[in-house]
Structure formats: structure tokens, C-alpha cells
Amino acid sequence: MFKGRSSESKKLLYKSIIDNLTENPGISGDDIIIVVYDPPLENWGVKGGKPANEVNFGFDIKV
């Protein structure tokens, strides 16, 4: 995940993952661990090897 998501958007992500895995295939939320790894954009090489902080993705990652 690109760095830039707020704590609130990460909480919503966690809840969504837990809700989906609880519903199907029926995993208990207590048995799920989620780790978000969000290194700085300059640590991502994308679109032909450009640093991600120099690429316009067409969307805002500050969510």
C-alpha cells in the first residue's frame, strides 16, 4: 500500500476485511491479523522504474 492513508481509512479497511472473511469463508475475526506495510513513495519503483513520488497516478492517495 502506498503511504498516505489516514488512520480512519485503515480502520475501515480492517473492518471490511474482517467482515468479508467472517461472512465467507467463516473465519472468526479473532483469528485474523492484518498488517499494513506502507513504505514512503520514493521506495516504490513503478511505471518503468520511476520513483512513485514522481508519478501522477491520476488519483489522490491521501485518503
Please trace the helix and strand order, writing H or E for each element. Answer: HEE
Spatial shape: elongated
Report strand order across the widest sheet. 1-2
* Relative helix content: 25-40%
How would you characterize the largest beta sheet? 2 strands, antiparallel
Number of domains: 1
The proportion of strand residues reads 5-15%
Structural class by helix and strand composition: mainly alpha
Counted beta strands: 2
Radius of gyration: 15 Å
Contiguous low-pLDDT stretches (5 residues minimum) are: none
**Overall pLDDT, averaged?**
92
Count of helical regions = 1
**Alpha-carbon distance between the termini?**
12 Å
Please give a structural write-up:
The protein contains one helix and two strands. A hairpin with a 3-residue loop joins strand 1 (45-46) and strand 2 (50-51). It has a two-stranded antiparallel sheet with strand order 1-2. The protein has 63 residues and is mainly alpha-helical. 27% of the residues lie in helices and 6% in strands. The model has no long low-confidence stretch (mean pLDDT 92). It has one domain (7-54). It has one helix spanning 7-23, and strands at residues 45-46, 50-51.
Concise description?
By secondary structure, the chain is mainly alpha-helical. 27% of the residues lie in helices and 6% in strands.
